Amino acid sequence: MPNRLKNKIAIITGAARGIGAKSAELFAAEGAAVAIWDVNAERGNTVAQQIQSAGDTAIFCKCDVTDATQIKDAAQHITSELGTPNVLFNNAGIAVVGELEHISEADWDRQYAVNVKSIYLVSRAIVPLMREAGGGAIINMASESAYVGFPMHPAYTSSKAAVVHLTRSMAVRYAEDNIRVNSLCPGTINTELYQEFIAQQDDPEAVNREIEAMHPLGIGEPEDIAWAAVYLASDESRYMTGAPMLVEGGILSL
Asked: What are phi and psi of 22, to 5 degrees?
């Protein structure tokens, strides 16, 4: 079904690469006007230009989603350039690797600032705009890691579990405003972030094989998650809210 996101105005955070960039491409191809928020201006502008070259609508706005002032400015920018947003994909995230005893306090705080606090800060700025527009859809990026206790990722796994429960709280609160809030829980996806993690291992090929074997469907690709995000952003999911949408290659079925 073409134009599944026609008349939607969407913000996607962390959209300069990986799942965010692919989501921006598919959102725009499905008819949405897309605002790409990221700290990487060079790559963010490239994604926006590629979308524009395809004849679709996108703008880039440099924004650190852990900074409330930058978020306020970016929200004003999208409103003036595209209109009032009615889709928000809180996709920005990082992964801190390391056992609990060896993670620095600064890294722990950074993990939560990007993965959890940013959802609070961005949503706080955008929800009032959505309410004035009559409603909208918010997608919060969680992970299979919200449900699996990966031993080397205590900061990451716990932050993603927090996203799932923050989503439920938001969904209950904003249903009366016609704002749906769902979380998206990918399995292991072949992104640059994943390749960077693999490259840090003593035996990258062995670790990659082990992770792939954990997923009955193997390691996914960014478009596998981007299409799920399109569904959650569209009116096709109008009766979904507070739900963790699992797109994890079957790891949780083992």
From this structure: -65, -35
**pLDDT per position as a tens digit, 170-202:** 999 999 999 999 999 999 999 998 998 899 889
Task: Please tell me which residue in 120, 147, 156, 194 is annotated as part of the active site.
Answer: 156
Q: What DSSP character marks residue 189?
A: B
Whether residue 244 lies inside any domain: the answer is: no
pLDDT tens, position by position, 101-130: 999 999 999 999 999 999 999 999 999 999
DSSP of 65-99, one letter per residue? Answer: TT-HHHHHHHHHHHHHHT-S--EEEE-------S-
Angle 145-227-39 (CA atoms, 0-180°, nearest 5)? 65
Q: Which amino acid is at 122?
A: V
pTM beyond 0.90: the answer is: yes
CA dist., res. 205 & res. 141, Å (int):
27
d(C-alpha 110, C-alpha 159), whole Å: 11
Residues with pLDDT less than 70, the chain: 1
Domain assignment present for 150: yes
Q: How many domains does the chain have?
A: 1
User: Which helix H or strand E contains 183, and what residues bound it?
Assistant: strand 179-186
Strand partners, 220: 189
**Domain limits at 180?**
9-187+221-236
156 is catalytic: yes
- CATH number, position 161: 3.40.50.720
Residues 6+ apart with CB under 8 A from 191: 17, 18, 19, 222
Q: Is 197 inside any structural domain?
A: no
